[in-house]
């Protein structure tokens, strides 16, 4: 696997801007030994002029890194009702991916009606050698394992796959270990990791369609009581996953981006091998 650092570690809670310059995130990734950065619209996306994207691409390349995936607009990570709109016109997102020489775009789907748009978007993306992927995510049609597999079968495109994310599966009460990963293996395009500790009196709440509102704590990846990362790593090893493994934690409420990037790197490299 190859370690990637998401700009989300430096993202404001609104998910539309960074608390530090993009160059600082790139510099951290290079300094620590990450192989790539995961881009979100909070740093640059469909709203950004081409000259800005070109400058960002140069920063990444000068650091000897790549962009592992792009989330090209604000609505996809906000997972709101406008989230699927990019599937109806995927071209601007494809342009952002091409600007970074990246072949993977994160998308959002909320209803079965989005399936036909996903097929059309995947066909357009395939013409440019680009893949689309949906994260395991609450309040989406990728909230639970069996339904998401059904959706993937309906889309039926080789370049449309999945971003495995165990913390969201934890919130929905779904298993996320080896058995689940064996089912997801044919569709695995990326891995996101963050950590939640379930607590009925926790300070953070997130709606799920299958279990109602869930309350929890955002906790660092290395803290116990949330996702069992030994189980995650064992599952990924069992299915032979060798793609990008992205630190996706929202750390703004916990610590600064430098500490987050350093400690995440030290912890993950202590429990798994990365190349």
Automatic annotation (TrEMBL):
InterPro entries linked: IolE/XylAMocC-like (IPR050312), Xyl_isomerase-like_sf (IPR036237), Xyl_isomerase-like_TIM-brl (IPR013022)
UniProt-recorded name of the protein: Xylose isomerase-like TIM barrel
An MF annotation (GO) of this entry: isomerase activity
Protein keywords: Isomerase
Coiled-coil zones: none
Natural source organism: Symmachiella dynata
Domain (Xylose isomerase-like TIM barrel) ranges: 28-268
């Amino acid at each position: 696997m190859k370690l990637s650092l998401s700009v989300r570690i430096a993202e404001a809670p609104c998910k539309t801007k960074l608390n530090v310059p993009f160059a600082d995130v790139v510099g951290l990734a290079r300094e620590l030994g990450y192989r790539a950065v995961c881009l979100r619209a909070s740093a640059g996306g469909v709203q950004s002029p081409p000259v800005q994207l070109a400058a960002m691409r140069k920063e990444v390349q000068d650091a000897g890194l790549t962009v592992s995936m792009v989330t090209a607009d604000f609505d996809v990570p906000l997972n709101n009702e406008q989230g699927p709109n990019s599937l109806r016109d995927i071209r601007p997102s494809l342009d952002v991916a091409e600007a970074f020489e990246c072949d993977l775009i994160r998308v959002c789907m909320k209803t079965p009606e989005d399936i036909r748009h996903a097929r059309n978007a995947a066909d357009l993306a395939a013409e440019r050698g680009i893949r689309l992927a949906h994260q395991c995510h609450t309040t989406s049609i990728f909230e639970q394992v069996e339904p998401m597999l059904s959706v993937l079968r309906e889309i039926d495109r080789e370049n449309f796959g999945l971003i495995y994310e165990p913390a969201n599966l934890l919130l929905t009460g779904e298993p996320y270990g080896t058995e689940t990963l064996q089912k997801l293996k044919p569709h695995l395009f990326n891995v996101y990791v963050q950590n939640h500790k379930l607590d009925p009196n926790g300070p953070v709440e997130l709606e799920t369609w299958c279990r109602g509102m869930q309350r929890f704590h955002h906790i660092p990846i290395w803290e116990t009581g949330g996702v069992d990362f030994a189980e995650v790593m064992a599952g990924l090893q069992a299915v032979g996953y060798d793609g990008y493994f992205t630190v996706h934690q929202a750390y703004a409420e916990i610590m600064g981006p430098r500490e987050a990037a350093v400690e995440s790197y030290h912890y993950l490299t202590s429990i798994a091998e990365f190349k």
